[in-house]
Design a protein that fits this description.
The protein is of the alpha+beta class. Helices cover 39% and strands 19% of the residues. The chain has three domains: 289 residues, no CATH class; 115 residues, no CATH class; 62 residues, Arc Repressor Mutant, subunit A. Bound molecules: zinc ion and manganese (II) ion. Manganese (II) ion binds next to loops.
Amino acid sequence: MSIVYFPIIGLEVHVQLKTKTKIFCGCSADYSGDEPNSHICPVCMGLPGTLPVFNKHVAEQAIKGGLALNCKIHESAYFSRKAYYYADMTKNFQISQDDLPIAYDGYIELIGENSSVKRVRINRLHIEEDVGKLSHGASDGRLEGSTYSNVDYNRAGMPLAEIVSEPDISSAREALDYAMMLRRIMRYCEASDADMEKGMMRFDANVSVKCSDGRSSKRVEVKNMNSFRALERAIDYEIKRHIEMLERGEEGIKETRHWNDATNSTSASRVRETRYKFIMEPDLPALRVAREWVEKVREELPEMPKQKWDRFRTGYGLSAVDAGVLTESPDIADYFESCVKSGANPLRTNNWVRTEVLRVINDASSNSTWQNFPVKPESLAELLIRIDEGKFSTTLAKQIFDLMCGGKNIMEAVNETGAPEGGVSEDKLNQAVRKILEANQDVIEEMKSCENTSGKKVRYLQGLIIRELKGQVKPDEAERALKKQLSLL
Ligand code: ZN
Ligand code: MN
């Protein structure tokens, strides 16, 4: 009997909470792109004699994130010092939360194939401070080959939420789904911008593999994944490595490993695994979280992605995949709904938003964002309603849409295509029909000899006429003119 392997994966995700200032001092949190060490002060540098002062907004953001992840909120939480001896943290400890995190016992719902829903339990969400950023060797190459490192403390003291899942994840693909849904939730509730490029979301993964014969490999913690791609590949790599070990009859060792993007592999960390030691943070009071505060934050939470996804499917009859795309961000969801509320058909709106609108938004050269997109949802609705009324063909509507993307309003765009509301003149239409019929004598002969396929042929000729007139004729008018001339033949 062949052995079956079951990967067991848990994720620890660090998410930067969105605040104006750092967690324990008044330094600006908006340091992106600024000179190294330009957003620092004695407190976030951990100089002797300084005292941390807790930024209340960090707690509010953590409560928001916790509630959005269906967590319970502790009424009192406190801070601990985690022994941390490394150059990116001058204090030699990191202020974190140990056995009383602010939020605990939640879950994320993942949407799988066939709209199946899987719950991944969240063990906890705790608050901690970020450390600085080390880079090894100077960027100008001056120190290449030397043992120098550079350190930038702008990030030191930035507020983080560390979100720890239970080991409920069973593949690299599922870990990716979890991470993407977590990012979506953090953005929806505005606890974090979760911008991967700015390092606002970082992953550690705990991986082991269980065999159907009862054996399992020792759990490893893989660190240093800063992108979705790295997360998926690192977990894939570890699962394969564990299965190979088990096939050799080995179980491996419990260790910390580092993912290396360049070599596409993990390697054992040179630092020996030590259990971090915590002591109570004596310079900060316990955090008392009033129930009324939690309830107020809960009331202000917007609709979450899973709820929106459910509502879009049942309310608008969208497929699971379409509803997934349209709830990717609150912006796209709002655009879609405003368009529908202005009277457009939901399915047609879905098609247009997913193809035409996203094509322009995703085209970097268009410099379009949801905020500055030139075609407001109300205007798109106007256009789509006219397609449904048979006033514009889809081809013509797309030309009009492109002109609207260039800043024209719908009337200006219609006029520019040379297709005033009434479409082309009767003469021009009949001329086009004659031209198409002359060029397609063979089709007409076939129609005469075989009545079964004549409906199909009429649609084919109708399509040629619409194309001949560059989409400036309503489909039903093209059909009427065509049938009229056909019966005269
Ligand atoms: Zn500071
Ligand atoms: Mn941490």
